[in-house]
Amino acid sequence: xxLVYQDPASQAATDEMQIAGVSLSFSKPLDAALLPPSxxxxxxxxxxxxxxxxxxxxxxDDAIARMRVAPDDPWVFKRSAEGFEVLRRNRAGHxxxxxxxxxxxxxxxxxWHPELFTKSYGWFERTLGQGIGLVLLTLRLLTHRGFILHxxxxxxxxxGILCAGVSGRGKSTLARLLDGAGVTVLSDERPVVRQWPLPxxxxxxxxxxxxxxxxxxxxxxNMYRNAQAPLRRIYFIEHGSENRITPLDPAAALRxxxxxxxxxxxxxxxxxxxxxxxxxxxxxxxxxxxxxxxxPDAVTAIRDDLAQEAPCSASR
Length: 316
What we know:
Layout: E1 13-19, E2 22-31, E3 51-60, H1 62-65, E4 75-80, E5 83-89, E6 95-101, E7 107-112, H2 116-121, H3 124-127, H4 131-142, E8 146-148, E9 151-156, E10 159-164, H5 171-180, E11 184-187, E12 192-195, E13 210-213, E14 228-239, E15 244-248, H6 250-257, H7 268-284, E16 287-292, H8 297-307
Parallel strand pairs: 2-3, 3-7, 10-14, 14-16
Antiparallel strand pairs: 1-2, 4-5, 5-6, 6-7, 8-12, 9-10, 9-11, 12-13, 13-14, 15-16
Helix pairs in contact: 6-7
């Protein structure tokens, strides 16, 4: 029995969603009821999209079932003159799905294993909350000065902040503290950063400016919002005995940012395209290490830092 597509005729259906100003337009209608709940706000557009990716295929492909088994290679990312290719395998090394598209990534073809895809996911809509959705957005943004990263993102008095860190550094804890203090949390795990305006438009400021956007991929705090804010600070968070903010120079910030950026760094072709954006980000936005205690004073330290003319020097 094939459960990959449910008949959307009697249920709410959608063929488009908008994340961080990127419209993902699907060639077949999706059943909105089968999407993860966090995607619902992103089915309502908050403004015109400036980037579009048309997603087609969306069906089983016998050729994927015949692909070589490679248990030690769960992900394959390729970039060539023909464009991009992303392949996902299961633990046994069998291909589950494949995404291909041109460079720049204005369209995508998504195909999957006739049997294993259904056993792993049940239906296509579920995969948008996992690998496929993240890959589509990552590749569309790659050549347009944007990326996804592991961080809590929030808007504090009109200023966007990123609190970045690998698992266990306290992103969800800090998201709950910010939310409890009345701060608008955009994402507790995977926000999107975009340079805006883009270089070459004639309107870009110096240093370059960035926006931080919410996304539909939350973590344990389950916080997500279809909104954006001008980015003013990047904090690399860690647990501490006191709340202390220590400034970082751009080189040190770059070394900390690369490990929390959701790009397959083992694929040099993808890394090269993004390094210029990351370097502009840490040069143009003040960065700091934020050691914090899990108490309300952590939010106060952030507010104090944002209020200072010389940023990233608060402690409490």
